[in-house]
Write a structure and sequence with these properties.
The protein folds into 2 domains: 184 residues, Ribosomal Protein S5, domain 2 (2-Layer Sandwich), CATH 3.30.230; 96 residues, Pdz3 Domain (Roll), CATH 2.30.42.10. The protein is built from 9 helices and 20 strands. The longest helix is centred in the middle third of the chain and has 26 residues. InterPro entries: Lon_proteolytic (IPR008269), Lon_Prtase (IPR027065), PDZ (IPR001478), PDZ_sf (IPR036034), Ribosomal_Su5_D2-typ_SF (IPR020568), Ribsml_uS5_D2-typ_fold_subgr (IPR014721).
């Protein structure tokens, strides 16, 4: 270190500064930080194709002729996504932030502690599948397809646990036809705990078909003190859902897209495919929002990034969940019209107004 001691004070200061700068440069360009960057993701037209296959395909009987209508290149109902960049260095993160199209958030907001990246992806994939199921139910309900009874929710450790499936359509109990919840209750009226009953269901099979199954359930005792005593307990919360004589397949089910936020756009895509005409009236429409089976549209994350993604691909109208409007208004891309949506009928009414040249309610 004799060379260092021989330097002037200014020389020593400069040398130390250069070393510290070098350390900072190395660390900033090689060491990962506990943040991820959220940015505009892919957008996919639900009226179009994915990997060369139509987003929606239909199989079965009485498929509406409308599914064969040819949508023009100008017809868009795009779902939007957010990209996630993980494993960033400090300099990489600063570069994305400086671009103005990305937001930095703590990594634990996307990948919670105690969960691996694969576990998070599996949960997102499950949410995506549930979103597809909810969108199909919401669309068929909107189109007034007949309602039938499904198993619905199954309580843990109930008599039906690991025997019935929430997606089973209930057909009969001990040979007595069941059309709704009242009929199901009537079929169980004279049963007792410990009695074995045969529940006939229609269960979805690979390829979209459905197979009838006779399943044995040993009834239990209802744990609810207010329930009628002595009656056998099946342990389900049945749900009425619409049913069509055909099945609906979504090609995005095989993609690596995750999360529930495409629900609204999936629903609109199904409705447009099953009805004559064009919901978009030739407009480039994009949007986001979860949807439940009753058609209620819920808020999502990354609204600003999704609006940027929509604008980048040419969208001029963006459907915004009502609860996201306040955030959406903080940064509206130039030329993008925001439409406020709290439920499915808000969206369909808005699209009808747009087709007439009128302005729907905005954020």
């Amino acid at each position: 270190m004799s060379w260092f001691k021989s330097l002037s004070v200014r020389g020593r200061t400069l040398s130390i500064g250069l070393v510290l700068t070098g350390v900072l440069v190395v660390a900033g360009s090689t060491v990962s930080i506990p943040y991820v960057a959220l940015g505009p993701g892919v957008t996919i037209n639900t009226l179009g194709t994915y990997d060369g296959a139509p987003i929606y395909t239909f199989a079965g009987e009485d498929i509406p002729p409308a599914v064969n209508e040819n949508f023009g290149d100008g017809s868009h109902l795009n779902m939007t996504t957010v990209s996630v960049t993980d494993g960033m260095t400090l300099f990489g993160a600063l570069g994305l932030w400086a671009s103005g199209n990305s937001a930095l958030v703590p990594r634990e907001e996307v990948y919670p502690p105690g969960q691996t990246t694969e576990q998070v992806k599996e949960e997102n994939a499950k949410s995506f599948k549930e979103s597809q199921n909810s969108s199909e139910i919401a669309a068929l309900t909107y189109l007034k397809y007949p309602q039938v009874i499904y198993v619905g929710t199954i309580a843990d450790n109930s008599p039906s646990y690991d025997v019935l499936d929430p997606q089973d359509q209930v057909v009969a109990v001990d040979g007595v036809q069941v059309a709704d919840s009242a009929a199901l209750q009537a079929a169980l009226a004279n049963t007792t705990p410990g009695q074995v009953v045969t529940v006939t269901v229609l269960r979805a099979a690979p390829g979209g078909s459905a197979a009838q199954k006779d399943l044995k359930v040993t009834l239990g005792k209802n744990p609810d003190p207010a329930a009628e005593s002595g009656r056998g307990f099946l342990g389900i919360v049945p749900q009425m859902r619409p049913v069509a004589p055909f099945t609906i397949s979504n090609s995005l089910a095989k993609s690596d897209i995750g999360g529930p936020s495409a629900g609204l756009m999936f629903t609109l895509g199904i409705i447009d495919r099953l009805t004559s005409g064009d919901l978009t009236s030739g407009h480039y429409i994009a949007g986001t929002g979860t949807i439940d089976t009753s058609g209620v549209v819920g808020p999502i994350g990354g609204i600003l990034m999704k609006m940027i993604a929509a604008k980048d691909v040419g969208a001029t109208i963006f459907l915004v969940p009502a609860d996201n409007c306040t955030e959406a208004l903080t940064r509206v891309p130039s030329g993008l019209q925001l439409v406020k949506v709290a439920k499915l009928t808000d969206a369909t009414t808005a699209l009808d107004l747009i087709s007439k040249g009128e302005t729907p309610p905005g954020c």
